[in-house]
Design goal:
This protein has 121 residues and is of the alpha+beta class. The chain has helices at 11-15, 60-66, 108-114, and strands spanning 28-32, 36-40, 52-57, 76-81, 86-89. Helix content is 16%, strand content 21%. It has a five-stranded mixed β-sheet with strand order 2-1-3-4-5, with no helix packed on it.
Length: 121
């Protein structure tokens, strides 16, 4: 699966006309789904990896390899490590199927990415 490099910018810098990407967001993890949230990994969340961006990627080839063909939509969540510039899998693929509830045990990341979807709970 092909991914692009992600960059994070400080809003105050953009407002002042400076376009300088941040090299670190520290212990924070930014989740992008239909809503965005920033979580501090140091606040008792051992399943959260700091300095990462977690988002959904759709890839036809990945969906064909990992999803049941009956599923209309089977997202894969990946995380981008800002320090290394590398992508890795953020969640197991079974978390967001429309025909069943998420597999247990749940991590904090599972709850963040599914909390607004009544069909999962």
């Amino acid at each position: 699966m092909s991914h692009s490099h992600l960059a994070v910018y400080r809003l105050a810098d953009l407002i002042s006309g400076r376009v300088v990407p941040m090299t670190s967001i520290g212990e924070h993890a930014i989740f992008f789904e239909e809503r965005g949230i920033c979580v501090s990994a140091n606040n008792g969340f051992p399943s959260i990896l700091g300095n990462t961006i977690i988002c959904k990627h759709r890839s036809t080839s990945q969906m064909e390899k990992t999803c049941d063909v009956r599923q209309h939509f089977c997202p894969r969540f990946d995380q981008f490590d800002i320090d290394s510039g590398t992508w890795s899998t953020a969640l197991d693929i079974d978390i967001l199927h429309k025909d069943r509830t998420p597999a247990s045990p749940y991590t904090f990341s599972h709850h963040i990415l599914t909390c607004c979807y009544r069909s999962y709970w």
